[in-house]
Amino acid sequence: MNKLPLLEDLPPVDGRRVLVRTDFNVPLDDGRITDDFRVRAALPTITWLQERGATVVCASHLGRPRGKPDPAFSMEPVRRRLAELAPGVELLENLRFDPGEEGNDPAFVARLVEGMDAYVDDAFGAAHRAHASIVGPPQTLPSAAGRLLAREVEVLSGLRDHPRSPFVAVLGGAKVSDKLGVIDALLGLVDALVIGGGMCFTFLAALGNPIGDSLCEPDQIDACRRLLDGPKPIHLPSDVVGLDPAGQFATFGTRLPDGAKGLDIGPGSAAAFADVVLDARTVLWNGPMGLFEDPRFAAGTKTLAQAMADTKAFTVVGGGDSAAALAEFGLADDVDHVSTGGGASLELLELGDLPGLAALREAPNAHA
Ligand code: ADP
Ligand code: MG
């Protein structure tokens, strides 16, 4: 596969206008940015360009305005924060105010690239979408992967191509169906899979356990059974905690009574999962172990996060909610890489490529 063109592969940018596709999809509360991590994350690329004399024009989506202007998703709060962090940067209005963005309309692409001399993609979280601002500009402009995007690709491709063994993937979160494709792909890469979170109950059901009112996707039970019958070890919880039929906090084994609901892995499972993480040399974690937003059901996720921080393994965390949990426990700096793109990171692991990356490799300045 061709290498991604990097910033160094752009023609001189002095006095040029460079369109930078950033991921400024920040969390907002009543028009205020609650976490500016994504704005700060774009600074290395923006600074690199500005130091070389470029005029930087950033463009991003924000939320889901569904193809029409919506003041609730205006880029104005981002524009104010950006002006403080990187004076002199221009910022286009929310790309998704125009249906041409998600529709990858050539006319919208033409408007985006008008007056631009080069294009940089630093929006890893959107690289799995064939949207206009992602795949359009590299068709005509000299293009490059920004620092953030390049680092994501380096780390995640490394997990696919040369992980140090034992390589363990820990998966959680709510839905099996969301992650079934990647589970399949990961089983080809890892030495063992650990499954917690809401998705473990469909697996427990596939083993014939009653699971009460826990999350379950009946149409995925056969697929789970097939995965469990495969050659790679899949670790499932040996105990769970949740609510009993009376709505009281309770601990269960792997068989839940009628009306009970499993909402976190139990302490025995958490300790066992932590041991697997501590013994590994590469760990990928995606998806919380339980309903961690409720403090009663955060213990499993917290134990796993602590093991991610303590292990000597190379540790990668993907997924918005897992990253949020890690940050909440104050452990975000103790893992090797926190991916900024949940869906994009899983899709890159599953397929080995993304539309946004393929587009950059086809750019006029990319090496053959
Ligand atoms: P990520 O964003 O890290 O990829 P997901 O979006 O797949 O993770 O899933 C995260 C959500 O799953 C969280 O809101 C969490 O509360 C929920 N969840 C985890 N375990 C359970 C469970 N046992 N029952 C219900 N919801 C759960
Ligand atoms: Mg999520």
Describe the structure.
With 368 residues, the chain is α/β, with parallel strands linked by helices. Helices cover 36% and strands 16% of the residues. The protein contains 15 helices and 16 strands. The chain has helices spanning 37-41, 43-51, 76-85, 99-102, 106-113, 132-135, 147-161, 176-187, 200-206, 221-228, 267-279, 299-310, 320-328, 342-351, 355-361; strands at 17-21, 28-29, 32-33, 55-59, 90-91, 118-121, 143-145, 167-171, 192-195, 234-235, 240-243, 249-252, 261-265, 282-286, 314-318, 337-338. α8 packs parallel to α14. The radius of gyration is 22 Å and the shape is elongated. The protein starts with 16 loop residues before the first strand and ends in a 7-residue tail after the last helix. The structure holds adenosine-5'-diphosphate and magnesium ion.
